[in-house]
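Milestone M4 deliverable, item 7.
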Amino acid sequence: MTEELSFLQNVPIFADLQEPELKKIAKLGVRKKYKKGNIVVLEQEMGAALFVIVMGKVKIVRTDEDGREVILSIFGPGEFFGEMSLLDGLARSASVVALSKTELFMIHRRDFLKLLHEHPQVAISLLGELTMRLRKADGQIKSLSLKDASGRVANVILMLADDIGVFRKGKVEIDELPLQQDMANMAGTSRETVSRMIHQFIKEGYLAMQGNKLTINDYEEFRKRHL
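Output delivered:
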């Protein structure tokens, strides 16, 4: 199987398709490259394509009434975005910005909708992924509304672990931790609070830091303690 098909097979919504179907999808899409900081899509613009991340990371952001950026999520390789506008035909609900050198696989709306009609299993997998995102959004809302600063920062670390972390024998390694200001935007707090909480978690033995790499020493224990 070629690199292109192997990549598509690792995308959750395409995982149940066979090689002939994956070859068709590979021909439908085009690859686009973005530099760190490039805007991929803008909030309120009309959606014309689904994007799948081949390499790199992106952040999903919205801007509040005061012009401040609020980060909703960070996506890595194999994850997708842009599906809401494709399904309902409305404008983009958020902006997407490349956090690093990023390559995306783009499928235009017409082709993606045709794919859903021809392969219902893709639609079923898509519903499953959307349900997971709704549950995560509910968790974020609960964290922001009910938890103290420690709980909100811990929730962001756990979300990053689930999104871009590498699990190894109970530990989770996040190789490139986002900027503390970005984490503050996700937690609805200040950069200083994020820094203080991370150092507190390190002191308590839950986390370890080496450069920009963060390790959760015992993922389940940290999750149990802070969720």
